[in-house]
Amino acid sequence: MPFQIIRNDITRVNADIIVNTANPEPQFGSGTDAAIYKAAGARELLAERKKIGRIAPGEAAVTSAFQLPAKYIIHTVGPVWRDGNHGEFDILRSCYRKPMLLADQLGCESIAFPLIATGVYGFPKDKALDIALATIREHLEESELNVILVVFSHNAFQLATGLTERVEEYIDENYVQWYTTEEYGEPFDARLDAIRRRELLKEETDDEWFGSAPERNMAPGMDLLRSAEATFAPALSEVMPAPMEKKKPSLEEVVNNLGESFQARLMRMIDERGMKDPEVYKRANIDRKLFSKIRCSENYIPKKKTIFALAISLRLNLDDARDLLASAGVALTNNNKEDLILRFCIENEMYDIFQIDALFFTFTGKGLNG
């Protein structure tokens, strides 16, 4: 996938380029910097790093990867957080943009970033994540590079203030509602109300036509009515035709009534919105080859998460998203955390696939493409 978030040790990630949050001087300190030097071979890497000299904040330089499972290491120096008014945001954007430009120039296919400047440099985690996602998304609009954001610790990853709490509340509310419905057939309070209404209606109707229960048993003519029922019921059953059994549809009829295939429905939705293929698969953050397979293979059904991504790319409303999923034989439910996150995003008109990927990572431990 063009972009994904994973939880891993960046020194173990298979990518053409590993990005190091470097010390500005040709020496290594702690955290990611120290881990990369140790894994690559500290003596060899430091000797090559000294040839580069000082690296200014926001700049980037390339060395060999030595013993790492990569071709290159790109060293970039992040900003030390002061108050946000001393160029910190621009410097951090540059820390993502320049390594990706270098990756394209080197002819590399993949690059792995840590979350830059969120450790000892103290950059607020939610703001750092927003900048990382926005800068990567902007670059991938014009590039086929595969970008991996590597998170070593869940503590280093933080969404925008308040968003996590809103999604948690949404999941809790909708899951509890589903659980109650599954357990009792309908929400518990509504079930009790319905039972009360049915009982009251039955009592009122019976009393209106026949009187109260004791009165009905003593009413004149009741013995005659029971006798007539016992006498004529068998005869009526002989002359009345038996109810016809409903004919089961043939397999051919079932297939003919399936409606649009997933592929046909997706392509129709794309055409209705006047979108071109690159716009669709880039906004969905799916690989061009995968999208080509979906377009060209009439009976191919992608994974549910891929359909989620396509629904986001097309900016579908909830009903249209359900229809697209249904055409692939899957449903949007209230008993699945991933389904509820997608529903939350659509209902709140959140259609940034990178932010949604971060939401999935926060609540499921895997990104949308994980």
Summarize the structure.
The chain is of the alpha/beta class and 370 residues long. The chain has helices at residues 31-40, 42-52, 88-105, 125-140, 163-184, 188-210, 213-218, 222-239, 251-256, 262-272, 277-283, 288-296, 304-313, 318-327, 337-347, 353-364, and strands spanning 3-7, 17-21, 60-64, 72-76, 110-114, 146-151. The protein has 3 domains: 3-158, Leucine Aminopeptidase, subunit E, domain 1, CATH 3.40.220.10; 167-211, no CATH class; 259-364, 434 Repressor (Amino-terminal Domain) (Orthogonal Bundle).
Topology:
Layout: E1 3-7, E2 17-21, H1 31-40, H2 42-52, E3 60-64, E4 72-76, H3 88-105, E5 110-114, H4 125-140, E6 146-151, H5 163-184, H6 188-210, H7 213-218, H8 222-239, H9 251-256, H10 262-272, H11 277-283, H12 288-296, H13 304-313, H14 318-327, H15 337-347, H16 353-364
Parallel strand pairs: 1-6, 2-4, 2-5, 5-6
Antiparallel strand pairs: 3-4
Q: How much β-strand is present in the residues?
A: 5-15%
Shape field = elongated
Average predicted confidence as pLDDT? 84
Report the order of strands and helices: EEHHEEHEHEHHHHHHHHHHHH
Report, as a whole number of angstroms, the end-to-end distance. 9 Å
Q: Characterize the main sheet.
A: 6 strands, mixed
Indicate the CATH class of the largest domain: Alpha Beta
**CATH architectural group of the largest domain:** 3-Layer(aba) Sandwich
Computed CA radius of gyration, to the nearest angstrom:
32 Å
Q: Please list the strands of the largest sheet in the order they lie side by side.
A: 1-6-5-2-4-3
What ranges have pLDDT less than 50 throughout 5 or more consecutive residues?
187-192, 251-257
Q: What is the CATH H-level superfamily of the largest domain? A: Leucine Aminopeptidase, subunit E, domain 1
- Quickly give the structural class: alpha/beta
Number of helices: 16
**Could you estimate the helical fraction of the residues in percent?**
40-55%
Give me the count of strands: 6
How many domains in all?
3
CATH topology call of the largest domain: Leucine Aminopeptidase, subunit E, domain 1
